Amino acid sequence: MTMPIQTLPVAVRMRRERVPGAMSRWQPWRWTLDGVQPLASPLAGLPDCVERNGNRQVWLHPGFEASLYRDDAEGYYLNLSTTAPCWFVLWRLEEEPTVDVEPIARPQVVTLSYHDAGRWLDAQESVEQVPAQAEVVAWLRAFTLVHYRPEPKRRQRPESFRGLTDRFGQPASVSTGWRREGGHDVG
């Protein structure tokens, strides 16, 4: 694995909110990503409930880093080319050591790469996004301008060189000769 060129310490905020209406019969609470906070310096520690009322809780998970890698510059470019560049957070529900407690949402990885988020989604992980702050977008843009080099456009083969396939994508062939049935020519 390549080493990151730049890193930014961050904390992830996860929100636990009460599910309204009839859906609450099956699931009284749901977890969602509340935000990603850039930090001036790394902050270690356990998750901490920073806001609590009868309908919601906000938990702060410190100790994460957003890392930028030279070989993922295209993923950052794709994020920057959207109307609202964002953070992507992969998180999982985990059981607490005591049986009485509901599962807690635990962030696993934080990134600014479209490619990373796509791979996680393909693996059917829980991935959510929140808008990135203006200073983070500027930091990402500066990195991407230095390291992103678009792939050169490749010449497309003419359609006449494409292989034949049937409507199911299986190889097909075309015969211009006589078809034989039962040993006799049919014409």
Concise account of the structure shown:
The protein has 187 residues and is an alpha+beta fold. The chain is built from three helices and nine strands, in the order ββββαββαβαββ.
Name the features:
187 residues, alpha+beta, four-stranded antiparallel beta sheet, 3 helices, flat
Could you explain how this protein is built, in words?
With 187 residues, the chain is an alpha+beta fold. The protein has a four-stranded antiparallel β-sheet, with helices on one face. A three-stranded antiparallel β-sheet has the order 6-5-7, covered by helices on one side. The protein has helices at 73-80, 114-122, 134-147; strands at 6-18, 29-38, 48-52, 56-68, 86-94, 104-111, 126-131, 179-181, 184-186. Strand 8 and strand 9 form a beta hairpin. Helix 1 crosses helix 3. It is flat, with a radius of gyration of 26 Å. The chain has one domain.
Total discrete domains: 1
Overall pLDDT metric: 86
The major β-sheet equals:
4 strands, antiparallel
Give the strand line-up of the largest sheet: 2-1-4-3
- Structure annotation, total helices: 3
Q: Please state roughly what percent of the residues sit in beta strands, choosing from under 5%, 5-15%, 15-25%, 25-35%, 35-45% or over 45%.
A: 35-45%
Radius of gyration: 26 Å
Q: How many beta strands in the DSSP annotation?
A: 9
Distance between the termini: 64 Å
